[in-house]
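Input chain follows. Return structure tokens only.
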Amino acid sequence: MKVLGTDIGFGYTKATDGKQFQVFKSVVGEANEAQFSETLLPSSVTYPRHIGIGKDAYFVGELAEQQSRGRGFTLDQAQFLTQFAKTLALTAMTPFVDSGEPVRVVTGLPISFFRKQKDALTTLLQQRHTVIVPKAGGGEREEKIINIERVRVIPQPFGAMFNLMLNDVGKPTNQRFVNEKIGLIDIGFRTADYTVSDKTRYSERGSQSSDSGIAVAYAAIANVLQEKSGVNVELYRLYDGVSRGTIKIKGKRYDLTGIVQQAFQQLATRIAQEVNRLWADDWDIDAIVISGGGGTALAPFLTPLLEGEVLPMPTDQDARLNNVTGYWKYGMHLWGA
């Protein structure tokens, strides 16, 4: 029996078995038969990101961005669940399991979608899936059975808390997160989620999702670039440029430093206002944790605006993996030997 953590995000999809992990953009594209069989494609990434499900073949992540004529990317939750989540999740998990091996999965949903969609996501994943994937080291393909026998869906921000609280066998090691009242701010691509863990108990009053994900800042950056260059840059194609501070469009390089700082400052102010208002009655919060890929980018702007002690983010970890690692640790807590 294998335990996996899987985080199917609007910006990135991630999976881990505790030993290996992978992260790729949440983009799905069509793959024609010739491309799917091309021998040089499997070596382009660490894990193969082209997959066959039923009669359809897909390129996923950066491979879809580079190779597919028709690409799918959405910030609509219902469309994301029905059209993209299964393909993204299976692509992420497939390299880590043997064909037919029983698999148990922990994943998460933003708070605003949790109650409405957790059963649908469970049903979508908890079954035997037949997929077609490339064989290791070559262009030949093979059938693989992904046998997901159990799925546990939790509110997304709790992944970050479980990552801080539990060790690799699922046992609590950091008593602060067991005994204290902790505010969690998880900034993803589409949403920002806020929740309170009071001695590990979920606080309904202190929890909500908002549309203040990092995509808000990316959209503002894209708008400025369109005014300057005349090109409407897709949000998922801004990731590298924002990280580097520059982007080249039609041979001309644009400095993004000032644009990014302004967009991030505005978004951080918006999030701080939402959090401080939401937690006005939770004045006894002991500490605040900022998490998520967007949290890393916004932490320097957001921390001074929050009311309370903000724990520093670990600098030796990829913040995009905080939730998925926590999902896996929680899975070990539930099902580990």
